[in-house]
Amino acid sequence: MRITRMSLQYKWRLVLGLIAIFLASGFQLALPILIGSAVDASNGLEDGSFVIANEMAASAVDATTDILGEGDNPAKSALIAIAILLFIASVGRGLSAMYQNYMGESIGQHIGYELRMLYYEKLQRLSFSYHAGVHTGDLITRGIVDVEGVRMFVQTALLRTVFLVVLIGTGMYLMLSEDLVLGLISLSFVPFVAWRATAARLKLRSNWYDLQERLSALTKVMDENLGGIRVVRAFASQKHEMKKFDDASNETLALANVQVGIRASSISLMGVAFMLSMAAVLWVGGLKVIDGELSAGELTQFLAFMSILLQPVRQIGMMINGYARGSATGGRLFSVLDIDPEIQDKPDAKPLEITQGTLEFHNVSFGYEGEHTLNGVSFKAEPGHTVGIVGPPGSGKSTIAHLVPRFYDPIEGHITIDGQDLRDVTLDSLRKAVGVVEQDTFLFTASVEHNVAYGDPWAPDDRVELASKYAQLGDYIERLPGGYDTMVGERGVSLSGGQRQRLSIARSILLKPQLIVFDDSTAAIDAATEQRIRAALTDLTKDRGTIVISHRLSSLMHADEILFIEAGKIVERGTHEELLAQGGHYNDLYELQIRPSEESQERLNSQDEGSAS
Question: Which parts of the sequence belong to the ABC transporter domain (predicted)?
Answer without folding.
Answer: 359-592
